[in-house]
């Protein structure tokens, strides 16, 4: 069977667009979980991302258990720090925050996480994580104490993505931040998607189905929806 990374590459090759629902364990209303899972199963989502800037590990574990029992979608950890590792997930985005200059998020947390990950069977998917200015301070910027890239500096964003690819990352994640006022600029997505080979994930501040479609059209291979679905479990109904 194919790894999740191979499936993403295959989808890109076939022009099939992917969609991840991001669940932050801290924001789950547990009484409504079964209904939420039903809505996820009815949605066009192809992946579930689980994580957040600050999450208690037991809650992460509980959520992943439920997801593995009640959906068939691959569950991928999208960690805010090395405590967010659960062997029950299918894979983890092994992020390096390339837009920032905080060594903790560039390499220190990865060093801490490596021996823990070695003891699990999790598929580790190295991902160049690039935070783009979004018109408001987002949790990623606050918690990582890094500056996002200027949303008008396309050259810098492209060079950062290309450096991420040359470093051997398997994916590039263009992130406006959860609850971003402005999503990643479409022209920036398109410039980067055309000038790297690896798949491009785009998320942050996408609040309607039209926004998803536009990101795909610009060249996103996988779009992440967090807040919009969190606020409205009928988001994907139409
Ligand atoms: C955040 O990209 C994700 O890491 C999703 O952002 O919550 O704004 O959809 P939203």
From TrEMBL:
<comment type="similarity">
    <text>Belongs to the GGGP/HepGP synthase family. Group II subfamily.</text>
</comment>
<keyword id="KW-0460">Magnesium</keyword>
<keyword id="KW-0479">Metal-binding</keyword>
<keyword id="KW-0444">Lipid biosynthesis</keyword>
<dbReference type="InterPro" id="IPR038597">
    <property type="entry name" value="GGGP/HepGP_synthase_sf"/>
</dbReference>
<keyword id="KW-1208">Phospholipid metabolism</keyword>
<feature type="binding site">
    <location>
        <begin position="204"/>
        <end position="205"/>
    </location>
    <ligand>
        <name>sn-glycerol 1-phosphate</name>
    </ligand>
</feature>
<protein>
    <recommendedName>
        <fullName>Geranylgeranylglyceryl phosphate synthase</fullName>
        <ecNumber>2.5.1.41</ecNumber>
    </recommendedName>
</protein>
<comment type="function">
    <text>Prenyltransferase that catalyzes the transfer of the geranylgeranyl moiety of geranylgeranyl diphosphate (GGPP) to the C3 hydroxyl of sn-glycerol-1-phosphate (G1P).</text>
</comment>
<dbReference type="InterPro" id="IPR010946">
    <property type="entry name" value="GGGP_synth"/>
</dbReference>
<dbReference type="InterPro" id="IPR050064">
    <property type="entry name" value="IGPS_HisA/HisF"/>
</dbReference>
<dbReference type="InterPro" id="IPR008205">
    <property type="entry name" value="GGGP_HepGP_synthase"/>
</dbReference>
<keyword id="KW-0443">Lipid metabolism</keyword>
<keyword id="KW-0808">Transferase</keyword>
<dbReference type="Pfam" id="PF01884">
    <property type="entry name" value="PcrB"/>
</dbReference>
<feature type="binding site">
    <location>
        <position position="53"/>
    </location>
    <ligand>
        <name>Mg(2+)</name>
    </ligand>
</feature>
<feature type="binding site">
    <location>
        <position position="24"/>
    </location>
    <ligand>
        <name>Mg(2+)</name>
    </ligand>
</feature>
<feature type="binding site">
    <location>
        <begin position="226"/>
        <end position="227"/>
    </location>
    <ligand>
        <name>sn-glycerol 1-phosphate</name>
    </ligand>
</feature>
<feature type="binding site">
    <location>
        <begin position="173"/>
        <end position="179"/>
    </location>
    <ligand>
        <name>sn-glycerol 1-phosphate</name>
    </ligand>
</feature>
<keyword id="KW-0594">Phospholipid biosynthesis</keyword>
């Amino acid at each position: 069977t194919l790894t999740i990374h191979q499936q993403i590459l295959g989808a890109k090759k076939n022009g099939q667009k992917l969609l991840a629902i991001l669940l932050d364990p801290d924001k789950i209303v547990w009484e409504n979980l079964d209904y939420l899972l039903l809505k996820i199963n009815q949605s066009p989502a192809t992946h579930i991302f689980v994580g957040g800037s600050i999450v208690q590990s037991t809650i992460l574990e509980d959520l992943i258990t439920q997801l593995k029992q009640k959906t068939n979608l691959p569950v991928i950890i999208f960690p805010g720090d090395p405590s967010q590792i659960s062997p029950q997930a299918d894979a983890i985005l092994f992020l390096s925050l390339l837009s920032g200059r905080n060594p903790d998020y560039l390499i220190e947390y990865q060093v801490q996480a490596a021996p823990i990950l070695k003891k699990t069977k999790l598929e580790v998917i190295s991902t160049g994580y690039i935070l783009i200015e979004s018109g408001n301070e987002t949790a990623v910027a606050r918690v990582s104490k890094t500056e996002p890239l200027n949303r008008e500096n396309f050259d810098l964003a492209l060079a950062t993505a290309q450096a991420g690819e040359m470093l051997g990352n398997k994916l590039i994640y263009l992130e406006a931040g959860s609850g971003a006022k402005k999503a990643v600029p479409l022209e920036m997505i398109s410039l980067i998607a055309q000038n790297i080979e690896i798949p491009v994930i785009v998320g942050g501040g996408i609040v309607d189905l039209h926004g998803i479609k536009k990101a795909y059209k610009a060249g996103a291979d996988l779009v992440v929806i967090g807040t919009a679905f969190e606020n409205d479990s009928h988001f994907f109904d139409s």
